[in-house]
Amino acid sequence: MIFRIQLWRGIFQPNFKFYQLRQAEKVNGLLWRLMILSIVSGLLSGLSVYAGLDTEMFTRLVEKKSMEAIEAMKLLFGVGSVLNGIISPIIIMYLSSLLIWTVLEDMKFYKIAAIQLYVVFIGVLEKTLEMVFRLMTGANSFSSPFGFGILAQLITDQPLLIHFMNEITIFGILGVIIQIIALKICSSFSLGKISILVIGIYLIFNLISSLLSLMDIEQIFKVI
User: Fold this and answer.
1) Phi, psi (rounded to 5 degrees) for 156
2) What is the pLDDT of residues 57-67, one digit of tens each?
3) Which residues are listed as membrane-spanning (predicted)?
4) Can you tell me the distance from the alpha carbon of 6 to that of 17, in angstroms, rounded to the nearest whole number?
């Protein structure tokens, strides 16, 4: 049996689709769908920079750098954002699949990767909706209605905790739920073990992303 990846149906009918994946001996369309989603992610990152989102640092450098230097920095920042948008989904999908595969030994790697593709799709949806929301409202990334950054700012002033809570979103939670359902259907491991594994990986990646977000990009550009 060949498994047909149907991204929307996998989200709305996970039991049906992932039972098919359990029975499948081959998955079609995984690679090209991943490439398309990664390119879309990169384009969204580029559009965000072009629209001026998260580029406030350059305004603060107007009196310290020439316009030519600032434009060069913007270009470098934009290229980096696009590349990050393209590469990050691929790396995260591969590493997540690899970590799960080392624990759930009764599953084929390609089946785990197929499940992770749905998570990438959910991430691209989130990125699209967040960009639209921010362009319409002028809000910053910590005011997104999809994350818990707003709540974190009300209870603490610790930057790491705020960034970490901001990385936890309703779309991320949906991705976790989809993974747990899919892995429970496709493997023989207990729901508890699968839940701990998936939630643990999700939180670890969020922590790494939070630490990277704390890097002072403005200070880096001041050195250039």
Assistant:
1) -155, 160
2) 666 655 566 66
3) 30-53, 74-103, 161-182, 194-215
4) 8
219: left (phi over 0), alpha (psi -120 to 50) or beta: alpha
Task: Give the sign of the dihedral formed by CA 54, CA 56, CA 62, CA 64.
Answer: negative
Q: Which of 79, 76, 74, 48 is nearest to 61 (CA)?
A: 74
Cα 178 to Cα 198: distance, rounded to the nearest angstrom: 10
Half-sphere exposure of 125 (CA within 13 A, CB side): 16
22 or 49: whose pLDDT is higher?
Answer: 22
Question: How far is residue 18's CA from residue 118's CA, in Å, rounded to a whole number?
Answer: 11
List, for residues 178-191, the tens digit of each pLDDT value: 999 999 999 999 99
Phi and psi of 166, rounded to 5°? -65, -30
pLDDT tens string 92-119: 999 999 999 999 988 999 999 999 999 9
**Rounded distance between C-alpha atoms, residue 180 and residue 131, angstroms:** 28
75 in helix, strand or coil?
helix
DSSP state of 143: G
| pLDDT for the residue numbered 44 | 95
Torsion of CA 90, 200, 184, 109, to 10 degrees: 30
Neighbours of 17 (CB within 10 A): 26
The count of other CB atoms within 10 Å of the CB of residue 183 is 24
Tokens of 167: 């990385």
Cβ neighbors of 183 (< 8 A, separation 6 or more) are 100, 104, 107, 112, 115, 189, 194, 197, 198
